[in-house]
Design brief:
Rossmann fold, 2 domains, 9 helices, alpha/beta
Length: 167
Amino acid sequence: MPRIADHVGLPIVHMIDEVARHLTTFRPRIHTAGLLATTGTVRAGLYEEWLDRVGIRLVLPDPTSQDHEVMTAVRAVKAGGRDGVTTLLLSRAARRLTARGAQAVIAGCTEIPLGLPVGAVDVPLVDPALVLARALVHRATAGQAGKAAMYCTQYVTRPSRLPPPPQ
């Protein structure tokens, strides 16, 4: 990443790095996080690599849960289905991760937050897209955290139209 940033002359904000940083801000400290994501994302190992750098152990779904719960739900969301069955599948997979020690669950692909509402799990549910959005707005507003948080909240709660940039 630093080589790319040097080459293009622009700062690069890495979503998974931001998620790792975000997880270090929780109190009490998170030592173990679970990941719900596509099989390809899980196999790529990026979350594991970045979380390891900040001392957080990653728990992954077992192969049966990955195939029959996570991927079934992801395919349903991609097909336009966002119903109780999808929520049930993802919440069951999340509970399996928390039973294995996950103190937070990362919604590691864009379909997961669409099928798994925050209240469906008993631990923090981390949406990487939202973490990235907040990091970008924070950087764009030169650290004016209040404006950045308000901007992100407005966008997330009203996704049909992008609010004007903070003044």
